[in-house]
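YM 10:42: Response regulator receiver protein sequence, as discussed on the call
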Amino acid sequence: MSNIQVLIVDDEPLAREGLALRLSEFSEISVLGSCKNATQAYDMLMLNQPEVVFLDIEMPGQTGLELAQQLREEGHPTKIVFVTAFREFAVKAFDFDAFDYLLKPFSDERLKECIDKLSSASDVTDTVRQHKKLGALLNRKTGNSIDSFMHSLEVSHNEDLHELRQIISLKSGSQWIRVKLDDIVWIEAAGDYMCVHTNSETHIIRKTLKQFEEELDSVHFPRVSRSAIINITKLSTLTPNSNGEYVAQLSNEIQVKVGRKYKFSIDELRPQTKGV
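YM 10:58: structure's back
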């Protein structure tokens, strides 16, 4: 269960203390602090980034509704639970995407209902965060996005994970293509598309070079210019030309230009058994 950090904002000291005491009974809630006005609350929100703010509406100076409007205009992700004794503010409160609205005095059951909703929403947020983390890890380790890796798993029969790590799934049009990493010779940017050149054919893929950089292991697939990535195992020679750049000689008599700033990393990565 997630630990939900919350901030309490109310101009009445007893209201702040009472709500903090009631929230302390929920193990999933951690009260970061309390504020007596909107200005103080805004500063603490910017500093501590709590997930939830329990916000009174009627306060001297800037009201809770005005603070909520400011947060939404600035794109602040904090969930807002309005806490007020005035029923007439309810409709207006939800205009500011309020997560919940607690009408004073509220029962323990009503507070628990609000906390349960917050816990469920927090679990969904954690799941999305873990999904993104898994996607990044999967890209680094296998050269696949989650979608392409799932596709590989769906069409695989007796392949183990080691074998899947040697394959990248690419979407060409409406079709998925499975390409062995060892078969890729180089990747070339061509406008809004990428040309993935293999030992036997070329695949046209709707993707950016930066996306390929993120998905492929840079040790085996280094970038050599603004528009090309090569398979380092296919490199046979690296020769300077007259304008200060270099030419990488790959298998199948393919030549790829190498920018000057990329040359040194290529020197470090290329197989030691192959000379210039």
